[in-house]
Amino acid sequence: MPMVICVFALIIYFTYYLYGRCELSRDAYVLAFRASTMAERQDMGMDEYVEAKKEEVIGKKYFGTTHPRVEAEQQGKEIKVSASATTRHAAMGSFFLKPAGAWEIEGGAKAKERKYTEHIRKITRYKDIGKTLISGK
Fold it and tell me: What is the full DSSP assignment across 9-62?
């Protein structure tokens, strides 16, 4: 019976780990994508945008972990956002199933700065010019 309880506890810990990892990756992507599209509109750099909006995106949805640490690095027109947290699980510390220490959760994403409306207009214009050249009018 103790072995079954330990296995169930380990499954719960793995579930917390997987949930935290998925949320960190999603939040990093949301921050990177929004920074690549919105930073110019708000007259700030992409890394400054991430710093200003990270608490709003992260919120209070993380449980079983420390509050995530978010870092942004801008290189030219590309933004890289990385996030990390540490799990909190003191139970089963002396049993054989649980690895010693805490588990580090990491996630990240990157996005390029693009002006989507200008890009769409340019492609549409190229199509119109192509149609005109092909039809000869």
Answer: HHHHHHHHHHHHHHHHHHHHHHHHHHHHHHTGGGTS-HHHHHHHHHHHHHTT--
Query: Does the predicted TM-score (pTM) go above 0.90?
Result: no
Tokens of 96: 């054989």
User: pLDDT for 70-102, tens place per residue?
Assistant: 999 988 889 999 999 988 766 555 555 555 667
Q: Which residues contact 51 (CB under 8 A, 6 or more apart)?
A: 72
83 touches 24 (CB < 8 A): yes
Structure tokens at 15: 């579930």
Nearest Cα to 50, choosing from 23, 78, 22? 78
Q: Are strands 104-112 and 69-75 parallel, antiparallel or unpaired?
A: unpaired
